[in-house]
Amino acid sequence: MTATTPTASAQFLRENEIRRGSELLFFAYSRVTRMIDDRLGANSIGRAHHRALYFIGRHPDISVSELLAILGVTKQSLGRVLTELEERKLVQARVGDRDRRQRLLRLTDQGYALDMELFNASRDLMANAYVQAGQQAVSGFWAVLEGLIPDAERARIHSWRENSVPPGERP
């Protein structure tokens, strides 16, 4: 926490305090996405492509149905994004081992390089904010973010985290 960041008041459930948190979340998200948007634009892709690349990179051989569940988009919308990513040789799909109807997705070397470029665009910003806030504040921040996620989704996120590939590592 910086010297200019006030602590939450004892009445942190009052409307003004909740609105302040919502505003901070909005401005922080906007800053992070603007940093990534420049690189997306240079590659002629959008945020939907970025979200797909991110989760495919973290979960190699993820099925299309699992990716649909994570992203919460329509099959048609995801289909357009995946088609573009495959045409650009950023993502490759293969048939499932047990179920031949299943499509398993993985980043290509080119897709992995772009995923890392996009991650690096915001890594330093996040790391600096974490350093300024300190470990206890980061844990509190994560707890608040997890509290915004419905219980059913939270359980799925925890299981994904345990089985994901950290950025910077290849499967």
Description:
65% of the residues lie in helices and 7% in strands. It has helices at 15-42, 47-58, 64-71, 75-87, 109-133, 135-147, 151-162; strands spanning 62-63, 91-95, 103-107. It has a three-stranded antiparallel beta sheet. α1 runs antiparallel to α5 (109-133). The longest helix has 28 residues, at 15-42. The two termini are 36 Å apart. The model has no long low-confidence stretch (mean pLDDT 88).
Q: Could you give the topology of this structure?
A:
Blueprint: H1 15-42, H2 47-58, E1 62-63, H3 64-71, H4 75-87, E2 91-95, E3 103-107, H5 109-133, H6 135-147, H7 151-162
Antiparallel strand pairs: 1-3, 2-3
Helix pairs in contact: 1-5, 2-4, 2-5
Descriptive labels:
single chain; 171 residues; mainly alpha; 3-stranded antiparallel beta sheet; 7 helices
